[in-house]
Amino acid sequence: MPIEANFNPNDPALLDFLKQIPLLQCLDETELNSFTSLLQLFSYNSGEPVYKVGSMRDTIYFVHEGRLSFEKSGYIIRFFDQQDVFGDYSLINNSPHSSTIHATEPTELLEVRLADLQDESKFTSGAYGKLCKQFAYLLTTRRRHEEEMYSEIDVLVVQDGGCAPGYNSVTAFLTEFLEKSGRRVFAASEGFRSLVSGDLRDFRRVVYSGSLYRLIEDFHGVVFTPPLREARGADFRSERYPDFKELENQKRAAENIKKRKVKAIIGIGGDGTLAGMQSLGELLPDEIQMFFVPVTIDSDIYGTDCIGQYTGVEVGAEKIRCYMADARTHGRCYIIEMMGREGGYHALHSCLGAGAHLAVLPDSRYNMKRVAKAIENRHATVIVVAEGYRAKERKSNNLKESAAEYFYKELLDAGLNTAQRVVCEAFSRDIRGALPNNTDITLAQRMAKKLTFLMQTGQTKMMPAVLSGQEYAIPFDDIRTHNTVSSDLAVLANRLGV
Ligand SMILES: Nc1ncnc2c1ncn2[C@@H]1O[C@H](COP(=O)(O)OP(=O)(O)OP(=O)(O)O)[C@@H](O)[C@H]1O
Ligand SMILES: O=P(O)(O)OC[C@H]1O[C@](O)(CO)[C@@H](O)[C@@H]1O
């Protein structure tokens, strides 16, 4: 239980303290004195709650000394320190508290009951009205600051495409390096879709500096990025947005970009995202700088390592090793479908790393009778099929089979007759959610640094690239997206000798 402490309501230091608080700056000297006479001072021990979620709003609290945590759904959202005010929502909202407040160190709070403020014999209705108005003013100015913050977007990051390890990492590093070079960085909340919609709620402010974050953390959409360096997933996007291929939508996005005075746009993703950026580039003035960062497990951007490809192969190979052990144990044949729409980089390298028996790539054409025979002579087999295998054929014939199932069907047509139970596994999307490994995090860091340099030196329509340890930059017009894999490696991955 908090302990009520004595204090002198006429203490000049106390009056000075109260005059610093924006909520009370609307009161004149007399009103402030009568307000002060309604205050009570309470001491809280460290860990003691002030109020809990669900309790009634009936008090406004002023932090006189100490520190408190503001918690929602078990998370600490922020801290309150000396001169901070909480509970002031009770001036306009009489629903129960949606948060819990705990003292995190010995704390003193000056408290005023709402019932006392509303009692005309203690506080005039005029002064109470002023307090309510002042609270509304503070709320709306915050909203105005938010509007202002998003009305001039400096650098805008747009993540699209399928998730891959490293989206979050590169966004965190871009924020760090660009902010350190004096830029303000923002992100579209949901990729290209947000550019078309263009509402304030479609944008986020991404922040690297802790002190800057503390200043603006209450504003809409502010995200502290350092923890994203190592985070899984892609925080600023949702489902794909195929409608961005429509010119009308691209035009709407271009208008919104100009309306929000964007100075530079960075697209992050695979070849589809690059195509979206290139289309946008046609509709925007040259002064708006444009960049692209390749993040894709399947490495479908030529001339550079792609962020996500190393984690993808590491996790993909480990997944195949598990199938190899299971296949050996049960005497089975697994046909695993892995990423690889065009070149098949991910499927091939994962297969190689794990020492699986055959990689079936989008362009592979095997003699299926020989493959069937080779399987029949084995106790256990693991075959990796890239998702793009016979994709056009399957699509044009409207076939429902996945690439793995289609390959199995071809084997059956070729007369496969094996004691091994054959199991086709579903497409391995799970790898997209893997934790980025050190190589991809380092690659993300290098590309972010290179991009910052390109931006600072006034370049545009460029992609930072890293190949064989060297950093480059490739102009948009020279980026090739058909990334074929080495045929020597495809031979190495053929342990069936077919
Ligand atoms: N030809 C195009 N023109 C304009 N926008 C496009 C085009 N192709 C794709 N996009 C946009 O880019 C987004 C991402 O494309 P896509 O789904 O092909 O992923 P990606 O960037 O290639 O990444 P990944 O291949 O790793 O999934 C799409 O949701 C769409 O909004
Ligand atoms: O999960 P979705 O939307 O079907 O996307 C599948 C595509 O995404 C990717 O996994 C890339 O992220 C491709 O390899 C694949 O073609």
UniProtKB/TrEMBL annotation:
One GO term (biological process): canonical glycolysis
One GO MF term: fructose-6-phosphate binding
Cofactor annotation: Mg(2+)
Gene Ontology CC: one annotated term: 6-phosphofructokinase complex
Predominant location: cytoplasm
Residue intervals of the Cyclic nucleotide-binding domain: 23-112
First-tier enzyme category under EC: transferase
UniProt keyword annotation of Kinase present: yes
Gene3D superfamilies reported in the protein's UniProt record: 3.40.50.450, Jelly Rolls (2.60.120.10), Phosphofructokinase domain (3.40.50.460)
Catalytic activity field: beta-D-fructose 6-phosphate + ATP = beta-D-fructose 1,6-bisphosphate + ADP + H(+)
Annotated family: Belongs to the phosphofructokinase type A (PFKA) family.
Name of this protein: 6-phosphofructokinase
Organism annotation: Chloroherpeton thalassium (strain ATCC 35110 / GB-78)
